[in-house]
Amino acid sequence: MKVWMVIQVKTVHVVEMEFIYLHHLRALMLVRRYCCI
């Protein structure tokens, strides 16, 4: 049961990291788009 909790926490952490990464990627694309204009 304890192991499952650790796995769950790690999964949530990975999802958060992916979400932050995607958010930064989208922000970068927007900045690049504005720079091109």
SSE sequence, one letter per element: H
| Shape, per Cα inertia axes | rod-shaped
Low-confidence stretches: none
Alpha-carbon distance between the termini? 55 Å
Q: Supply Rg.
A: 16 Å
Structural class: mainly alpha
What profile does the largest beta sheet have? none
Q: Roughly what is the average pLDDT, rounded to an integer?
A: 86
Total of DSSP H or I helical runs spanning 4+ residues: 1
Q: Could you give the count of β-strands?
A: 0
How would you sum up this structure, described in words?
The protein is mainly alpha-helical and 37 residues long. It is 95% helix and 0% strand. The protein is built from 1 helix and no strands. The radius of gyration is 16 Å and the shape is rod-shaped. The N and C termini lie far apart (55 Å). The model has no long low-confidence stretch (mean pLDDT 86).
Keywords:
single chain; 37 residues; mainly alpha; 1 helix; rod-shaped
In short:
The chain contains 1 helix and no strands.
Layout of secondary structure:
Blueprint: H1 2-36
